[in-house]
Design goal:
By secondary structure, the protein is α/β, with parallel strands linked by helices. The protein contains twelve helices and eleven strands. The chain folds into two domains: about 110 residues, Aspartate Aminotransferase, domain 1 (Alpha-Beta Complex); about 220 residues, 3-Layer(aba) Sandwich (Aspartate Aminotransferase, domain 2). Strands 1-7-6-5-4-2-3 form a seven-stranded mixed sheet, with helices on both faces. The chain has a four-stranded antiparallel sheet with strand order 8-9-11-10, with helices on one face. Pfam families: Aminotran_1_2 (PF00155).
């Protein structure tokens, strides 16, 4: 059996697992706030938390095998006026990670390529590698059997609007291929996020499948927007009902538990939570960047204004590592760009409310 090697990756087995942020908090006596994850600064919504807690009393029963009523409630959230005609293309999963792996296992074998950005969320590459795809580099001119683009891109903060996204798909995917577009962070866009989302492009997705046999899947991890990473909750909008049924056939039963389903069914109705998210996230993000620019005028900050994190190039591997170490020591961990992304001069920090940011900035005064 392989021997675990977690020398630099904390609880992650560096030989077998893909590194993620979000683990340090459990090992801190002085924990204040987790800046290493891209979750919502407002924390878990109270209404959904109450529903999740109440659902524990039903946990001696199996979850509903059809994922209802949570699945239909999410469909109404995605397509308020069209959910009845579109909801049968939607399926829930145990986090987006389960669904990423299931879709890539189903995909036509051959080549895989990432989105056009310098780096991106690594679960797609991990699954492609484990399923023996040939991995093409980001700058390859070749079209691939499977292409995966994270939009907005975590961690770089790049974002393609729909016309550019469609052009990228046409230029990078072979006929008969699969496309996985991860829109987990896209609902932060604004109250008009739906009209900017690929989930709204029903005719385009049908045309790509009917004319080119290109299957487009839109992936969501809902644990970031609604700050519930411990619950594991994701979804995929499939190109056709048949694709959804193919996933359902191989998905293990009851992969989304009672608590997560109750949380989802309640949280999609919390409009107040979303309004304050859209209002305050760009304000706090800009405030944080302004403060950091004054402290570190040589740092470069990346990402669209609406995003829940800031991607920072400190210009120095040594500076970035010291920033990570100081933040950890102060109980406000940030995400290093070294593990997984292989960008050691970068750090990623979440958007948080000002009093928490002040703790981080105090920790970095000695940089």
């Amino acid at each position: 059996m392989p021997t675990a090697d977690t020398t630099s990756n904390g609880p992650w087995d560096a030989k077998l697992q893909q590194f993620h942020g979000g683990q340090d908090w459990a090992h801190m006596d002085n924990f204040v706030e987790d800046f290493s994850v891209t979750t919502n600064a407002f924390g878990m919504p109270d209404s959904a938390m109450a529903a999740a807690i109440q659902s524990i009393s039903h946990s001696h029963h199996y979850p509903p095998a059809d994922q209802e009523p949570a699945r239909s409630s999410l469909a109404r959230f995605l397509w308020p006026a069209e959910f009845e005609s579109e909801q049968n293309r939607l399926i829930l999963g145990n986090g987006a990670s389960e669904l990423i792996d299931l879709v890539i296992r189903m995909a036509p074998k051959g080549t895989w390529k990432p989105g056009p950005f310098r780096t991106q969320y690594k679960e797609y590459e991990r699954s492609a590698r484990n399923n023996n795809f040939e991995l093409l580099p980001v700058d390859s001119a070749d079209k691939a059997n499977v292409a995966c683009l994270v939009n907005p891109c975590n961690p770089t903060g790049d974002y393609l609007e729909l016309p550019d996204l469609k052009r990228w798909i046409s230029a990078n995917v072979l006929p008969g291929g699969y496309v996985l577009i991860d829109e987990s962070m896209q609902p932060w866009h604004s109250a008009e996020f739906r009209e900017h989302s690929l989930t709204s492009q029903h005719e385009y997705i049908r045309k790509m499948y009917d004319e080119y046999s290109i299957s487009i899947f839109v992936m969501h991890s809902w644990t970031k927007l609604w700050c519930c990473t411990g619950l594991r909750l994701g979804s995929v909008v499939c190109p056709t009902v048949d694709h959804m049924r193919a996933i359902k056939k191989v998905q293990v039963p009851w992969s989304v538990n009672v608590v997560a389903l109750a949380f989802l069914n309640a949280v999609v109705a919390d409009e107040t939570y979303l309004r304050k998210t859209w209002q305050m996230t760009p304000v706090w993000r800009r405030q944080t960047i302004n403060l950091l620019q004054k402290m570190f005028p040589g740092w470069v900050f990346y990402g669209r204004d609406f995003l829940s994190w800031i991607w920072v190039d400190t210009g120095s591997e040594t500076t970035a590592q010291k920033a990570v170490d100081l933040a950890h020591a102060a109980g406000v961990p940030v995400r290093s760009g070294r593990p997984g992304y292989n960008l050691p001069s970068f750090v990623r920090l979440a958007v948080r409310e000002p009093t928490k940011v002040n703790v981080l900035l105090d920790a970095w005064k000695s940089l």
